[in-house]
Every structure is written in structure tokens, then in C-alpha cells.
Amino acid sequence: MTGTIETIEQQLLSEQQLAERVRELAQQLDRDYAGKRPLLVVVLKGSAIFAADLMRQMSSDLEVDFIGTSSYGDATESSGHVRIVKDIEASLQGRDVLLVEDIGDTGLTLDYLLRTLSLREPASLKICALLDKPSRRRVSIPVDYVGFSIEDHFVIGYGLDYASRYRNLPYVGVLSLKPA
Ligand code: PRP
């Protein structure tokens, strides 16, 4: 279909590793949000699977809403231009908001979301990212909760895509792209 050969080079994080770390994050979040009603804002689409697993492991009295952003399109490099393609329905005013992300890469998406959503006057605004690639940062962002800090691999699966595919893999894998 394209002039590229796609190979899943390795399984970086197994289903079991993901499940264990998600459970730990959920426990930490339950402790930190004790007595509060956090609003989890899931950053579509990549975070859908992580968020579904995370919230089911949490026992907090939480609410959930969704925001859609796009900056990569079908490319492997960020365009550098973040767009909101679907906005949150809930008011953020006075709420304890937790942004749930699949991955922090250049940081441009989370930086944009922090700046945009803080204007809506939440009581607190924090970030929980399953994966973090600190070596790729173009802007500094405070990631309050990180599942796994990883090397600069192109990762797919457990919600993450390449050209809209591979999101349904139950593990996180490394995709290699070579010219055909
Ligand atoms: C991906 C990912 C993050 C963002 C991280 O989203 O889900 O939201 O890129 O990259 P950054 O730190 O360089 O901004 P994408 O725009 O590909 O949309 P998707 O989640 O719908 O795949």
C-alpha cells in the first residue's frame, strides 16, 4: 500500500507489565485525590485504552470527560501544530483535573493543553502519562505521574498508533519503518 516495510521489532512492554504499572498508578492517584472528586480528561485517541484500564483500577469518586487533539496526522514526526478536534463538555472551573495521556514526546500537545485548560480556572491541573520520552522534549512540561520512561523508539499498541493502525495491540511494541 505504501513504499515502506513495517515490522514490529520488539515487544517493549508486555500486557502484564502494563497491567501492574497501571494498578500502581491507580493506587497512587487514589491516595493523592483522597476526599476529592477528580475529573479525568482523556486525551483522545491514543489514551483511550490506558484511561479505560486506569479508571477501572481507581476507587476514587471520579468523573471522566474527553478531549481530542491532533498534531501527527499520519506522520511519525509532530507537525508542531496542535489542534483541538473535540472539546471537553464539562466545566473545569474549580475542578481537580487530571489529564490522562498515552505519551509525552516533544511535549507540544501537553504544553498546549496545560496553557489552554488552565485558562478555564481548574482548582488543580495535573498530568498522568503512561509513557514518557524525555529525550525528545522540545518544551518542558511537568508530568506528575509517569508509567514508564522510555528511549526514543517509535512505539505502537495499547492505544498508540502508526497511521491510525496498531492501537488494538494488547502490548506496547517498537515499530521499525524501512523503505521497501
Ligand atoms: C500523540 C499522543 C499524544 C501526542 C504526544 O497524539 O497521543 O497526544 O501525540 O506527542 P507530543 O508530545 O510530541 O505532542 P496524536 O496527535 O498522534 O493523536 P492520537 O492520540 O489521536 O493518535
Which strand order does the major sheet show?
4-3-2-5-6-7
Mean residue pLDDT: 95
Counted by DSSP, the helix tally is 3
Major sheet: size, sense and barrel closure? 6 strands, mixed
Low-confidence stretches: none
Helix content: 10-25%
Q: For the terminal residues, how far apart are their CA atoms?
A: 11 Å
Question: Can you give a write-up of this model?
Answer:
With 180 residues, the protein is of the alpha/beta class. Helix content is 22%, strand content 34%. It has 3 helices and 9 strands. The protein has helices at 15-32, 48-57, 108-118; strands spanning 4-13, 39-44, 63-70, 83-86, 96-104, 124-132, 145-149, 155-156, 172-179. The strands form 2 sheets. It has a 6-stranded mixed sheet, sandwiched between helices. A 3-stranded antiparallel sheet has the order 1-9-8. Helix 2 links the parallel strand 2 (39-44) and strand 3 (63-70). Helix 1 (15-32) crosses helix 2. The longest helix is centred in the N-terminal third of the chain and has 18 residues, at 15-32. It is globular, with a radius of gyration of 16 Å. It starts with a strand and ends with a strand. The model has no long low-confidence stretch (mean pLDDT 95). The structure holds 1-O-pyrophosphono-5-O-phosphono-alpha-D-ribofuranose.
